[in-house]
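Example record

The entry below shows one chain as it appears in the dataset: sequence first, then structure tokens.
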Amino acid sequence: MLEARDKGLIKHIGITTHNYSNALEAIETGAYETLQFPFSYLTGVKELDLVMKCKESNMGFIAMKAMGGGLLKNSKAAYAYMLNYENVLPIWGIQK
């Protein structure tokens, strides 16, 4: 991936995972510009830790399942929560 980016074949490198340990390792490598991970106002301290570690590493954080995988119904509250974190961009997909 790094070689492809250096050659101009790709512009950005991101990673997606549902595994906390894999996410931490990805942040620590410094190879990625974004991390996509489940995050909503239902998630816990570990997920918030990932958001902060990404910010410290100048990485973007893409919040998958921003509506809690369909558990959340109040989109305004979910959006307001996301606004607290400047490096987080939510994905607002709908699940049934």
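Notes for this example: The CA atoms of residues 14 and 34 lie 5 Å apart. The chain has a mean pLDDT of 92.
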